[in-house]
């Protein structure tokens, strides 16, 4: 059976001075630091011992901008897959917090009653279905080689939870999926046999210790 690796990468830092939950709103692009993160990962993939033949991204601008230098550095055409898009969220376009954010307003509280689905957005099971389908497509396209899929934190984390047969509901503060991080899935045929997490741009993260790859 062919061994294939699919790398799930989260996009870099986004320019968001108003600190809103931008979700699927178009036009949110990478910050200057975000572009540095994207280039750092592009250099990581170009210089390392990788055999990447497919690069595909979510249609959202921040993911496309993150994936562009990766594809360019490898001499590959950048693909787009709608299934890699950010999770839908009721609070999209709003500030999210207790102080001056949406949570102080009672009209929003009914959307918080069920954290297991979750009630405020796209169901976790639906995210798993589309993300796993996108991974399977990439695995077939890159069979015997490697693929990079650029997506968003929650879909990547939920996809990982399902691959590891863990519960889907979770504490968002405990997600292991930092900006520009890479969650690598290794398959023998269509069977997942390994999962590895790296942060090629880890030293660029706010508050980072300077240890890349943590």
Automatic annotation (TrEMBL):
Protein name as catalogued: Fructose-2,6-bisphosphatase
Biological source species: Sanguibacter keddieii (strain ATCC 51767 / DSM 10542 / NCFB 3025 / ST-74)
GO cellular component: cytoplasm
SUPFAM superfamilies: Phosphoglycerate mutase-like (SSF53254)
PANTHER family: BROAD-SPECIFICITY PHOSPHATASE YOR283W-RELATED (PTHR48100), PHOSPHOGLYCERATE MUTASE (PTHR48100:SF51)
Pfam families the UniProt entry points to: His_Phos_1
Coiled coil: none
Molecular functions (GO terms): phosphatase activity
């Amino acid at each position: 059976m062919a061994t294939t690796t699919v790398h799930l990468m989260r996009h870099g830092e986004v320019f968001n001075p108003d600190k809103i939950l931008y979700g699927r709103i178009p036009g949110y692009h990478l910050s200057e630091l975000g572009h540095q993160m994207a280039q750092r990962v592009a250099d990581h993939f170009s210089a390392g011992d990788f055999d990447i033949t497919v690069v595909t991204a979510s249609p959202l601008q921040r993911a496309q901008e993150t994936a562009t230098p990766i594809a360019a550095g490898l001499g590959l055409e950048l693909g787009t897959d709608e299934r890699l898009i950010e999770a839908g969220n009721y609070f999209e376009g709003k500030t999210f917090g207790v102080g001056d954010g949406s949570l102080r307003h009672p009209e929003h509280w009914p959307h918080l009653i069920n954290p297991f689905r979750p009630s405020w957005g796209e169901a976790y099971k639906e995210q798993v279905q589309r993300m796993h389908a996108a991974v399977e497509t990439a695995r077939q396209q890159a069979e015997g080689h490697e693929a990079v899929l650029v997506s968003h934190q929650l879909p990547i984390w939920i996809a990982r939870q399902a691959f590891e047969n863990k519960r889907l509901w979770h504490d968002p503060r405990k997600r292991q999926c930092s900006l520009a991080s890479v969650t690598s899935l290794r398959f023998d045929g269509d069977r997942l046999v390994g999962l590895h997490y790296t942060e090629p741009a880890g030293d660029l993260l706010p508050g980072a210790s300077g240890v890349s790859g943590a």
